[in-house]
């Protein structure tokens, strides 16, 4: 088993289209038989401000409202958002540790301050990183990047800054990691039970994707986080 599959971290400032960048990367690999699990969380705006998020399960294409700014006594309050119990159950199920022989890529959109406080997806991240896992792609706000890397002791991060990185080259780097993972699993003697679903929902097209990111820029920005740094 490969215990050190890379964690690609798509990062940028608030409102800098991290989720859109991720949509486009997934759109480039969707036809390549990549078995993707995890969640993507498109946001909603109201009066120019973020008003909530919807979760999409990438293995099934199903979706569920995760949270909104509208108060609800049934919901968990985190910051100014109220997280629906149905949305949390939906997301936690989608982020359960995958069958490593039936999953090529795990996606978590996004890892942020609520997870750093031990809420929302924190427990799922702990479980994912405690097991052999396929390559993963996370989205993380730039100002939280180093704290997230330190909190989950990620020693093999590949940092992708949406302000400078190429969508195409990032997709190629993710696919390289997927092929390496598949090769490692082909020689693994460990049997694994089946996992439901191996489909990925086709991402919607977003006109403002990776706005301002020149296509001739380097593939990705790499940082190695290790015990000597």
From TrEMBL:
Spell out the InterPro entries in the cross-references.
Nuc-triphosphatase_THEP1 (IPR004948), P-loop_NTPase (IPR027417)
Alphabetic keyword roster: ATP-binding, Hydrolase, Kinase, Nucleotide-binding, Transferase
One matching Pfam family is NTPase_1
Q: Which residues cross the membrane?
A: none
One MF annotation (Gene Ontology) recorded for this entry: kinase activity
Isomerase: is it a keyword of this entry?
A: no
Matches recorded under PANTHER family? CANCER-RELATED NUCLEOSIDE-TRIPHOSPHATASE
Protein name, as recorded: Nucleotide kinase
Top-level taxonomy: Archaea, Methanobacteriati, Methanobacteriota, Stenosarchaea group, Methanomicrobia
């Amino acid at each position: 088993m490969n215990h050190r599959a890379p964690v690609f971290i798509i990062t940028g400032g608030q409102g800098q289209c991290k989720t859109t960048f991720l949509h486009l990367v997934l759109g480039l690999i969707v036809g390549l038989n990549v078995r993707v699990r995890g969640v993507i969380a498109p946001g909603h705006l109201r009066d120019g401000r973020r008003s909530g998020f919807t979760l999409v399960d990438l293995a099934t294409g199903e979706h569920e409202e995760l949270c909104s700014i509208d108060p609800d006594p049934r919901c968990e309050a985190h910051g100014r958002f109220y997280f629906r119990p149905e949305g949390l159950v939906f997301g936690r199920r989608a982020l359960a540790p995958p069958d490593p022989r039936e999953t090529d890529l795990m996606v978590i959109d996004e890892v942020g301050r609520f997870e750093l406080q031990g809420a929302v997806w924190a427990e799922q991240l702990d479980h994912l990183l405690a097991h052999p896992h396929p390559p993963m792609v996370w989205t993380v706000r730039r100002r939280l990047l180093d704290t997230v890397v330190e909190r989950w002791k990620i020693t093999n991060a590949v940092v992708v800054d949406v302000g400078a990185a190429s969508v195409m080259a990032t997709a190629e780097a993710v696919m390289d990691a997927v092929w390496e993972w598949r090769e490692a699993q082909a020689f693994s003697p460990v049997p694994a039970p089946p996992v439901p679903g191996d489909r990925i929902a086709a991402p919607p097209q977003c006109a403002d994707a990776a706005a301002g990111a020149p296509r001739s820029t380097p593939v990705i920005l790499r940082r190695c986080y290790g015990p000597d740094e």
